[in-house]
Amino acid sequence: MRTTAALLIGTSVIAFSVPAYAAQTGQAAQAQTANQGLAQGSGDDIIVTATKRASRVQDVPFSINAQTEKDIQRANAQTFEDISRNVAGLTVQNQGPGQSQVSIRGVSAGEIVRDQPGVKEQVGTYLDESVISLSLFTPDLDLVDLNRVETLRGPQGTLFGSGSVGGTIRYITNQPKLDVVEGSVEAGVNTIKGGSMGWDAKAAFNVPFANTAALRVVGYNTHFGGFIDSVGPFSKKNVNDGNRYGTRVSILWQPAPQIKITPRVVYQKVTAGGFNREDHYILYDNEFTSGAGGDDLGERKQYLKRREHFSDKTLLTDLTASYDFGPVELTSVSSKMIRKILVSRDASALTGSVSVSPFLSIFPGLDPAIVNLTSNLRDTTHLNQFTQELRLSSTGAGPFQWVFGGFYSDAHRTYHQRLPTPGYDAFIDAATAPGVSASQDNGFGLVDNPYHADLPYKDTQKALFGEASYKFGQFKATAGGRWYDFKEERRFHSGGIFSDLSDTTNRTKSNGFNPRGIVSWEPDRSLSVNLQVAKGFRLGGVNDPLNVPLCTGSDISTFGGFQTYKDETLWNYEAGFKYSKHGITFNAAAFYADIKNLQVTVTAGSCSSRIVFNVPKAHSKGLEAEFSAHPLPGLDLSLAGSLLSSKFDSTLIGGTPPAVIGGIRDGNRLPVVPKYQFAATANYEQPFSATGHWFVNGSVQTIGSRFTQPGDQEAGAGNVNLIYFDPVTEAYGTSTQDFGSLKLPAYTMVHASLGVRWTSGLEIDAYVKNLFDSNPKLSLDRERGLRARIGYNIAQPRTIGLTVRQSFGGAPAVALPPPPPPPPPPPATQTCADGSVIAVDATCPAPPPPPPPPPPSAAPERG
Question: What are phi and psi of 24, to 5 degrees?
Fold first, then answer.
């Protein structure tokens, strides 16, 4: 913490002590950069690298969105979720800090629960050239000093590999620059309705040196205010506050024009004191308990017996090097990522519900007081991953373009789960016999830990990829593919009285080929029409064994026969067009994704286990469009939206008697996916002086209804066999109640901002997010399949904030038209009517009198 604070202070000193020469360095370069910055509002001028080469958004032959640095600042975005609502077809399911799950175009298998480390992601995530995605825990990166965030829709298995079955997200940072001293510092403060204060301090600077190198350093520290209050034994206001701080340091060394070498170090730590969960029912606090009887639960409240915690430390080191041979460029990308993640939850309701049912019937002499013990579920993940990509690509502007390369990754990941519950062993041994709890430890050497498991993984991936395009006249054909070879080894070692005492090693492997073909028609620079067929995949795996001691007989017969699950594959068929002219940009696409062996997670009844099933057939189809216009000087309008229909095309039957498993029924909706999503934004900006502008911005975002898991849409899904325990009277039991629909309702959020900026680089921005203080339900949070707890992860309430940003060097913050030339000075002389020239303060001579009129002539006599 002190190191980060020192970095921020030092950066600020540098920013404000840079000599005046920095603001004047490279005037021509400043003007060029300023023009590029102004053009960022126009979609056809945004440069992206979605095809592993630089090109305009409008020239990329598939559907892509790029949110620029300007867009991010206008939205006052703090997280990727803030960005996602403005991007058509992009959905984020919030499951707490650092655990949000992303889906694109409705390709979703639903919620991946916290203790499913073997399930792979459906959307790949990259920081520049380095892959950073990890199922469950893709880093929640700070958005400072980003050039843009690219959303590549549809399977990207050709160039980006596994994990990109639905699409790819790319955070593109600003790179070191050799020719300019530039940077920025910013500070912000905000207050949350009914919550606590938040603040942030961020800085970035770029310094060239030795004519062949440049250093770019970013530092940030953000405190997120809390807005959830806890009741119960652990009572605290704003329990879910948190912090995020980190740095990015990169160096560009360019010893020759054709050689570029960029090493970089990225470090970030995110912590949170709790989760944004709103409890509606929990084992200890409900209508069956004494005292408040559940009345102390309500909006933005949760019940806790102990504090919860989240921590994520991420260290990424990478090296990108390129050599331009002329017609060909060689690029190497090496990266190493080390992460340590802890999710610490209050699992008292989980452990207590097991103690009510089935343990109070299995162990008749068990003291009911065991249900009231405090329990802590601790999930830890340690990742050490190395990746290497090497590729060759063509350069120049000829009709034939190509890229070819290879990729290798080696990841070692260890997942630990512990359930420390002080006093638990004594209760079990008293009801059975001394040493019974210790006999269930299975070699871990733990006490008072009714469940514990170690799952070390070793994953290796090899791939060859290539893509080429040829342009002939108004048409361009693109074809490519990726050959991949995956291997995974996992050991599952568990112990404790809840577990089945497993110690097994499983291996899975897969190889195959993912092709892509695109045909484009471009009659002129402003219009293109694209047709695409592409394949994507997601690696399969091995399910964890059921926690047999907790299962009923029907649960074992339904869920016990599924050990492995296959690769998920997808064929995407897409048609789209892109138009940009006269300040109007309109991009749209229609698609149909045919999904095979969709990997869907189902809660295994009362077992407190999760099982992944392959659904033979499913599909997602829809329309997406993004429109922007500049109808008046200073006015920018944009609209983005998508209509989706994602459904199962198969029914999964199992159990005795046979029944539909987990809501996987032909015609049911895929979870997480809204049927519609729209966002409209307006920004108006005008000068108030020769050196400054004022601006106002507003946005409206609407998200349709969704389901968290497939079974939530089944008839009677809200009719739950609840478990309860009164801590005061020690009364316990079960009760069936109907909570109604488990559908997550549609919601709308409105944001607005007002600010001023000057050519000196100073900007002041006041904003309000969630203006009307809506309380949307983002995902359903459950314990033991709704039996022990029913809650919802919710969005942040109305937040009012102020950001002050100072940029220096580089391009001016506001590019204003040149002032009109001054009026010419008054003349020193004047010219009189008679043609004479005299002093301006002299009097011209009076004009001579006009000559008298001629006398009239005598009229002629008449004859």
Answer: -110, 0
Copy the structure tokens of residue 667: 């015609």
Q: Is 421 exposed, middle or buried (0-12, 13-18, 19+ CB in 10 A)?
A: buried
Nearest to 492 by CA among 437, 558, 563: 563
Q: Is 19 a member of any domain?
A: yes
pLDDT-derived band of residue 560, with 50, 70 and 90 as boundaries? confident
- Quick check: is 663 in a domain? yes
d(CA 166, CA 535): 10
User: pTM of the prediction?
Assistant: 0.87
What is the pLDDT averaged over residues 640-669?
93
Name the pLDDT band for 527 (thresholds 50, 70, 90).
very high
pLDDT in tens, 10-63: 333 333 333 333 333 333 333 333 333 333 334 457 889 888 888 899 999 999
Residue 851 lies in a domain: no
What total of structural domains would you count in the chain?
1
pLDDT at 699: 96
Q: Given the structure tokens 């004479």, which residue do they identify? A: 836
Report the 10 Å Cβ neighbour count for 820: 6
- Residue 823 in any domain: the answer is no
Question: Strands (DSSP E) along 539-675, which ranges?
Answer: 541-542, 564-565, 568-581, 584-603, 610-632, 635-648, 653-654, 659-660
Adjacent-strand bridge partners of 328: 394
Rounded CA-CA distance 783/285 in Å is 14
SS (H, E, C) 338-360: EEEEEEEEECHHHHHHHHHHHHH
What is the four-CA torsion angle of 3, 5, 7, 13, rounded to 10 degrees? -150
Tokens of 481: 């593919």
- Alpha-carbon distances of 723 from 431, 451, 555, 605, rounded to whole Å: 21, 20, 18, 14
- CATH code at position 569: 2.40.170.20
Q: Which domain covers residue 673, as residue numbers? A: 2-290+300-452+483-809
Q: Provide, for the chain, the percentages of residues in helix, strand and coil under a 3-state DSSP scheme, each rounded to the nearest 5.
A: 10, 50, 40
Closest CA to 175 of 238, 114, 115, 129: 129
Q: How far apart are CA 461 and CA 443, in angstroms?
A: 33
State the Cα–Cα distance between residues 677 and 702, nearest whole angstrom. Answer: 6
Q: Write the pLDDT tens digit of every residue in 782-826.
A: 998 888 999 999 999 999 999 999 999 875 444 444 445 555 555
